[in-house]
Every structure is written in structure tokens, then in C-alpha cells.
Write a structure and sequence with these properties.
Four copies of one chain form a homotetramer. By secondary structure, chain A is mostly helical. Chain A folds into two domains: 1-51, Homeodomain-like (Arc Repressor Mutant, subunit A, Orthogonal Bundle); 55-196, Orthogonal Bundle (Tetracycline Repressor, domain 2). Chain A has helices spanning 11-26, 33-40, 44-50, 54-79, 85-102, 104-111, 115-119, 123-146, 154-173, 184-196. In chain A, α1 (11-26) packs across α2 and α4 (54-79) runs antiparallel to α5 (85-102). The first copy, chain A, is elongated and about 60 Å long. At the C-D interface, α9 and α10 of C face α7, α9 and α10 of D. Chain A binds a DNA duplex (21 and 21 nucleotides) through residues 8, 11, 32-34, 42-46, 48-49, 53-54.
DNA sequence: CATGAATGAGCATTCATTCAT
DNA sequence: GATGAATGAATGCTCATTCAT
């Protein structure tokens, strides 16, 4: 019976899903346990059977998103043939942006939440989240070894790349980019711009 | 009349100022009409005489912020001697990032508010906000004319630059950049990276 | 128009009264702002216009009770003719017990509240509350001066007397005294017992 | 089987014990079925297999407390050598006060619970609770027979004594006795004062 | 005998807003 | 132009209890 929520077996799953939907629909500020409960079709109390607190629920959601993102980044990297660092990094950048645009629900909780809420983010989850950046750093390091990237520190460069991609995704999600500009070519241009800085023959970053 | 709030003439001004102070001091989430009223020294009701709603007040504040940002961008541009587009653009990028980092909560309200709330953003205000991007575009266009920038469309490039700078500011504000990475040189590296893509001799963006 | 609550002029008064009633009817544990509001006929929010918090409301109630008790103790003392310390102290003891039995509402909040709640009791209120014990101590001191009381320290003796009277009142209010025993003569016997210890010719206390 | 909770045989016992511990440690207000269950190591539901409701559990606990108090009073009485009524009564009074002060939260549940909750106190339990007062009454009656106590009715006097001791304990527990007064000598003075009234040579009570 | 899942009612407090004055 | 009084809705969370298993 693959229905909406047939019998109580996966209330936890339903809560996570509805929370994600509500987050994108109304924003974090307007998210409340009661609203989630209403959307799921259970009592607010029941949520606490599956999540210790609102924060814990949010954290679980972030964690899910981080793992999905990791899978997609890795898939992007592995799909490029032949596997050159330049092509891989480009594929990963595209995968990152695609993930953000296609999962604005996840993306907002994952990367746009207040520090206050993230301060208590569990160490284990944090470690998993960091793996995404490490994925970028590894490919950049590979490129340095092969002499195709000209950067001093792969970790720093991974962060720099991330800020560029994140800015792109957030402004698109926030619908702040002028409609006259925000088309497919814009995304491509921004990604290319973000990647070009690493290439040999350009000033070091 | 150097009094706290001399005559009724400028309650509106006082409300905007105190709201900005509160915003910077306590953050958007903790901003309430009552707190503003207390800070201003008037009744909560009085605020409604000058602003239709909390949203309208926020919008007015955003507008002011956009104008402040504009002033600082212009100042950055005008301060560079001799006035080369390359130096000017760098000065503006640094001014943008500085504005964001120094006005944490203000920046969040200006650029990270939920789209729904911005949907009703008045057209006049929107036009003023766009002037900031135009400032970037103008300098880029100058650079193209002088042959120092290699871009196809100055408007698009201004947006691309913006996304990069915005990503940098947001992740720093959200304290998402690893402490091992987030120092002064990181900001410099990211800004340089964002600018290098436009330089002659690199692939067009 | 001496009706229940004719026009909003004295919501504060109504809140205090209803809170007192609810306290005796349902006990402190079951007192809630909502219930008070329902009893008064206003919204829960409105209570906060008159009292900063639930604690502040309780404290105000205690303060009222303390002042009323003071008035009745003083009245009891002043009413005895001729004004001998022995007769005055007896009159005050009877006044204390009468106050407790006739104002169980006040009494419970005044003297049976958890220390936690009293820890934050405002200093001014506390000073007023202490005046009641001082009233006892003064009369005892008078009696010592006149040589009719045999006690070492009037302050300590006032406290000792208080514990006895308080025990009497609380057990009667809690309906813990056997019905076969709890009649008028019992109260008289207990009061006499509490006073006799001070009389000259009995072992010092 | 010196295990934590060896076999299911005595879950009831474990519940009562843990409830008592929690009560002493955290107070009545913070006592919840869930906490008890956690402390015992069973599910909250299981408690209901052994106690009809929270009230029933509390009642059972009160009953145990009354029996403990009875044991300590009897022990105090039996420990005095030679067994004179005066010394015995004093020993019992001290035992009562000690029990109250050493079992703060227990005492509150036993003697300061709202009448409404006690209304449903089972008759059998009530009978057991009364045995404590009878213990006092017996010793007083003995003293009357021996001519060392001068009271009309031993039952009434036992109650009178109880009110005095209860007042002492309650005000000390509620931390209402002035710090300048509340030391060891104060307790002694109050107990002596409570007992002196019965002695031959003082007016009857 | 025991449990996990679930719930409705309740808590103190804060919010943006309205209305009569 | 300004206010004090008032409110309904909402917040995260805990509670004692029930029920199907």
C-alpha cells in the first residue's frame, strides 16, 4: 500500500517530508510543530516521539540533505569521461547548483539557517556535512598534482569555490536575480566564472 | 534642538533608526513592534501611524540599507586613484563585502529575506535596489571599453560578480566557513577569485 | 453600577480577586493564566497588561494579604481594654487565626508557597510582610518590660508563636484535623497552649 | 539476586522507591510518570498496571511515609530511658520534627497536599495515618495517669501538639523563618514551647 | 506482565494588530 | 498625531492517560 501514509509505520518519514515541504512553502520563521503535525496528519505531541525537539528535527533534515548532496556530487564526479580534474570539478559544480535549484527545500535549511541553530549541530552530522567540501578539495588537489590547477591550498580553494556556487544558488532561490538575466546561460556563465580562477595561466587564487 | 526626540516632527525617522539599531543588536527574529516602540519612546500603536505594517517598516529599512550600500560602493569606486576600472571594481567588491560583514543583520534583512515577503516589495524601492548592480555594471562596461575586461555582457557579469560576493558574505555571516580557513587572507582570496574571471587573458564569462 | 465588572476600569482588581478565588478552589498547582482570564472574562493576554508575569501577580496577591493581615492584627491589639500585653497578645493570636480561617485564599498564597517562588519576592514586599511578625514581637517585648512575659528574646518568641499559630491554621485549612476534635474549643485550646508558654511562672522558651 | 531490578516480581516496589527518590530529589512539582518510568527502567504504561493513577501512586507513597513516620516516632519513644512520659513525648516531638526536616519533599506530600487530592484518600490509609496521632495521645494519656501532664483530653492535646510541630516544620521547610532566628536553638525552643503547655503547673490546655 | 505509539489538553508567554478615545 | 487597553492566534513543549498488541 504505497499510499500517502497508509499505516503508522513511517510517521518519522512523513514528518521529515512534510517539514521539508513546509520549509520551502513558508520559510523557516513560519515553521511550527503544530503546522507540521497538521500537514502530516498527526498530533503535535507525536512528533516528539520521533524527534527530541524542533532543533533535532531540523538537524535530521539537514543531515539527510547533506548525504543526498554528497551522493550527487560523487555521481557528478564519477560520470565524467575521461576523468580529468578539470572536467570533474566542472561536473561537480554543476551538480551542486542543480541540487540547490532542484531541492530548494533542503538547500535553505542546509545552508541558510541561523548560526544559533547550527551551534548545537551534532558533531557527527557536522562531520558528514564537511565531506561535501572535502569532495571538492580532493578533486582540486588532484588537479594541482596533475599541474592543471594553479592554487596554493586546495582546502581554501574548495571554500572559495563553494562561496561562489552558494551565492549563485541563494540569489536564484531568493529570486533576486533580474529576470532579464536569470536564464540557463547565466547559470553556465556563473559556474564557468567560478571555475576559471583555478586554471593554469590565470592569476593564482 | 539636540534633544533625544525633540518634537513630534520626526517620529518616523526615530522609528527607522531604532529599528535599525535593534536589528543590528538583536537580529531580525527578535525584532518586535513593542521593542521598537520601547526603544523609540512611543507607543506601539504610534508606529502604525507612520508605517502600514511591520512589513512596510522593514521595506523602508531595506530601502535605506540599499541607499547606504550604494553610497559606500560609490565611495569605494571614487576613492581609487588613478581611476582605473580594474582598481575601481576591486575597491567596490571590497566595499560590498565590508558592508555585509559590518552590518550583519542589516545584510540579512536586505538580501536573505524570504521571497514571499519581498514579493510585495514596492517597485520604487526595487528600482533603487537595482542601482547597486548598475554601479557594478557601469565599471565593468568602462573596463570593457578600455579593453581591460573581457566579458560579453556587462549586466550579466555584474550579476555574476554579485553572486560570488554574496556567497562569500552569506557563508561568513552564517559562520559556515571552516575556522581553519576563515581569516583575512580568505576574504582577499575569494574577492580576487571573483574578479580575476573578468580580466583579459582568461576565458570569457 | 456595583456589578461584577461593569466597565473595564478595574480589571486589575478583578484579576486579583479571581486569582484569589481560583487559588482556594483549585490550589496553586492548578492555577493558570488562562483559567484566571476565563474566570475574569478577559483574554489571557490582558493580564499581562496589569502584571508583568504570573509571579508578579502572585506577589501582588501576597502583598495585599500581608497588608490586610497587618490591619487585623493591629486592630486586634488596639481593641483590648485595658491594654495589657497578655490580653493584646491573645487578641492578636485570635486575630491571626481568624484571618487564616476566613481568608484561606490569601493564607495559602501568603504562607504555603514554595520557596522557589518566594526567592524572587520583592524586597519592598518582604519588608511589609515582616511587619506582621514585628507586631507580635513588640507586644511580647512590652510584656517582658512589664514583667508579665518570661522570654529571652522577643524576636525568637514571636517566631515560635507564629509557628504554633501557623500549624494550627494550616492543618485546619488542609482539613487534616479530625472532625471529632476540630471545633471552636479546639482552636481556643491550641491558641491558649501557644500563648501559655510565655507566661511568667512557666519554663522559659 | 542483588541486581538492579532482578525479576519482574517487584516492579511495584521499584516504582514506589524511585518515586520517593525522585520526590526527595526534585520535588513534587517536577514529578511525572515518565520520569518515574525512566528511573525505574520500565515504560510509563507499566506503572498503570500497578497503580490506577498518579493519585493512587501518591497515596500509596503517603501511606508508606506515614508508616515510616510511625516507626520513627515509636523508636523515639522507646529509646528514652527511663521511660517517663515527659521524656518520651519530648523524644517523639524531636523525632517528628527531624523526620519533617530530613524528608522535605516527602513531608510536603504527606501533610501539605491540597485537600481535594486527599478527599479521595482511601479509608484504610487514613486509619494508618491516624495511628501517628494516637501514638502521641497514648503517651500524653500515660502522663496524665502519672500526674505529670495537666490536660483535659489526650486526643485534643495530641492534636494541639501536632499543630505546633507541624507549624514549625512547615515554616522551616518553606524557609519562611528569618535567618537571624532559624538555628538549632530555635528548633529546640519551639519544641520546648510546644511541650511546656502540658506540664503540671501551667494552665490546662 | 509489559510496551511503544499516540493523543488532547494544558502551560506561560509573545506577537502584530485594532479600536475607542 | 498619539495612546492605553485589549485581543486572538501562535509558539515549543510536557503532561497523564489510553489503546492495540
Amino acid at each position: 500500500m504505497p499510499d500517502a501514509r497508509p499505516n503508522g509505520t513511517d510517521l518519522r518519514r512523513a514528518i521529515l517530508d512534510q517539514t521539508r515541504h513546509l520549509l520551502v512553502a513558508e520559510g523557516y520563521d513560519h515553521l511550527s510543530m503544530r503546522k507540521i503535525a497538521r500537514a502530516v496528519g498527526c498530533s503535535a505531541t507525536s512528533i516528539y516521539l520521533h524527534f527530541e525537539s524542533k532543533d533535532a528535527l531540523i538537524h535530521a533534515l539537514i543531515d539527510e540533505g547533506m548525504m543526498q548532496l554528497h551522493a550527487q556530487l560523487a555521481a557528478g564526479r564519477d560520470a565524467c569521461e575521461p576523468p580529468s580534474p578539470v572536467a570533474c570539478l566542472a561536473a561537480m559544480a554543476r551538480a551542486y547548483v542543480r541540487f540547490g535549484l532542484e531541492n530548494r527545500e533542503y538547500y535553505q535549511v542546509m545552508f541558510q539557517l541561523h548560526p544559533e541553530r547550527m551551534a548545537r549541530y551534532p558533531a557527527d552530522n557536522y562531520r558528514r556535512a564537511r565531506r561535501n567540501l572535502e569532495l571538492f578539495a580532493e578533486v582540486i588537489a588532484d588537479g594541482v598534482k596533475e599541474g592543471v590547477f594553479n592554487v596554493e591550498n586546495a582546502d581554501v580553494s574548495a571554500h572559495v569555490l563553494w562561496t561562489a556556487l552558494h551565492g549563485l544558488v541563494s540569489l536564484l532561490l531568493a529570486e533576486r536575480v533580474d529576470v532579464k538575466v536569470a536564464d540557463e546561460t547565466f547559470v553556465d556563465a556563473a559556474i564557468r566564472h567560478a571555475l576559471d580562477g583555478f586554471r593554469v595561466g590565470t592569476p593564482a587564487s
